[in-house]
Amino acid sequence: MTSPQGMVLLQRGSAPPFVELPMEILYKIIYKLSQEDLFHWLLTCTKFSNKILPVLYKLDLGLDPYMRDYEVPYGSYKSLAWACQHGLMGTFDLARKLGADLDHFLELQLDLLGPLSLSPLQVALFYQHEDLAGHLLEAGADATALAFHNGYYSAMHFATSASMVRRLHSAGWTPELHLLDVPYKSVIWWMLQRDAEFGAIEAALDIGVPANDEDSGLSMMHACENHRLDVVRLLLNRGFRFKQQSIVEENLKVGMPGICEQLCLTLALQRAIIEPFDTSTLTELVQLLLEQYSSSEKQDYRSEITWLILATGPDMPLAVRSLLWDSLVVPHGLPQSSDLEGAWERDSVGYIMDIVQDILASNADAVELLGGNLRRILWSIGFCLCAKGGFDWTRVQPLIKTLIGENHEHIDVVCAYPTPFTNPHLTENDEALTLELIATLLENGADAETKFGEEEYGTDLLHRSIGMGAIRRVKLLTDYGASIDPPTLQEMEHPIMFTQDDLGEERLTEMVEAQKEIAKLLSSRRKGFGKKATSS
What we know:
CATH architecture of the domain at 406-536: Alpha Horseshoe
Number of helices: 27
Structural class: mainly alpha
CATH topology of the domain at 406-536: Serine Threonine Protein Phosphatase 5, Tetratricopeptide repeat
CATH class of the domain at 406-536: Mainly Alpha
Radius of gyration: 31 Å
Oligomer: single chain
Distance between the termini: 93 Å
Shape: flat
């Protein structure tokens, strides 16, 4: 029991005896305890914490006056890294006073880059702590330091405000650093990736960052995809030229000058389908890109059909549909959308699908040409099906079936199409239309065990279909030889379900019942199934 004298001392807040120990003894205590135990101890006593924290910072900075040869888990600059990651000015000031090297590269795990060594200034800017970045610059941090990860990165890559761009330039950063090997990650691209303010991009161009170098096409694509009309106009005013850009087109695997504006328009329309957008901004952006496309020397059925299909997406503004119709269809001798009056407003999707069907019916070469762009067209349909209502899949699906023809590729794209469980706006009829495409691809020779990827649950068609509660897809895939192994049956005891967060209670109950039906189906087919023969 504590004596009355001891109680008085505690009431007065007297420091415990161990706080008065010599520093050499405190260092030994630190070395004997785990870091976790030590940090918990610090939380129990403010006076002890105030005395021991400077010791920890010294150790963290590699400053150890007593046990230089002792192997300990310190000296990793964690205090400085934490300060830069979380904007902890007090921690930064203490580390600086203790002699921290402000250009010491810190080992971090970053979302966009993975494991990487960055300077403290780069870390502060990456985490958008510009006040701390300003203190680092005032203290002499090197604005030209370069980190390497599949290319070089400087502090300017992580700047998001005009004031910071100018400060870095005043501190010695020059556009020549931008010309180093930075594949697909130019300064402007990074600023757009991090949603930098318009002034920051303008300031970067003002100090000499090029608007039309070999990687600028990717920056323009990013701006169009995110409907940054202000940036698109800025880049064009500062010398960006679509015709001079070579973008690697996925299906051809080669640089193709003249397709940059096509990919930009595709991305802009896809984003409009899946996320809220400003109608006037999207309309102006589409008009600008169509003007660029019309003035180019490379006209392409593949992109045009893709745009017309995307134009049928839910909530696509009538003004955008009209722009695409008037730019792509009217030159072939059909009336302007304005001449169709009320009929166009009532059934613009029907008009678009009818003309696309006519193009394919009258031009056999068009179907073959579109085959090279089939994956992108199928992706575009996926965007439309993921949107919240309004997509006329009944009108569009026959066109897609025509394009597939005898093709057996890209079943992974079609099997990823949402179900009524993953998008409640879809109907059972929509699912039947998707199932018909999957069946066509399987009949054409598609592999029922095609993989999506190696890093996520549902890496094959069967598991993805299970997760979406698509019992008819599961049945079809097993008919065509999809394997049902013991781990799959075990997973069905507690299946992972891909559903929307706002799925209603009634719909969720239906999903659970669908999973039970799938489990029964898989159990009944575990033995003796084989690949279904093609239809005779």
